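Pinned message: reference record for DUF3243 domain-containing protein
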Amino acid sequence: MSILSDFQEWKNFLSQRVNQAEGMGMNQETINELAYQIGDYLAQGVNPENQQEKLLKELWSVANEEEQRTIAGLMVKMVNDGKK
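Predicted structure (tokens):
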């Protein structure tokens, strides 16, 4: 099963990667930039495998770059808030 087939698995994976980045000393700005790049890659080249991913892809496709960066930052915030 792919991590993209289940949204909770995707969130867990993203949370682990954010934890790794923080452990390596990356600041929030750098982490958000990486999240934006990953989001853009996924939106351009990966077919969504569940309803949540379909929604995110649709939002990404209608958003301008600033809004896409906001979406990416919110995804990071969502998985960070889940750790608390």
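Pinned by admin. Summary line: The two ends are 28 Å apart (CA to CA).
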